[in-house]
Amino acid sequence: GSGRHSLIAALAARVGRGIACIDCHRLPRAGKLMAAALRQELFRALLRGCVPVVSGLEAADPADAEGQDVIKQTLRSHPGPVCIRAAPEASLPLDPGFVTAMLPSLNESERAAFWHEALERAALPVADVDALAARYRVGPGVIEQVIAQVVSRRNHEGVSPDDDAGSQLEEVSAQHIATRLSHIATHVRRLARWEQVALPEDVIDSIREFVARISHRKTVYEKWGFDAKMTTSRGLTALFYGPPGTGKSMVAGLIARELGLDLYRIDLARIVSKWIGETEKNLAEVFDAAEDGQVVILFDEADSLFAKRTEVKSSVDRYANLEVNYLLQRLDTFEGVGILTTNLEGSIDQAFKRRMSLRLHFPFPDEDMRVRLWAAHIPAEAPVAGDFDFLDLARRFPLSGGYIRNSTLRAAFLAAQENRPLGQEHLLRAIALEYRELGKLSTSGRME
Question: Is the model's pLDDT at 320 over the cut of 60?
Answer without folding.
Answer: no
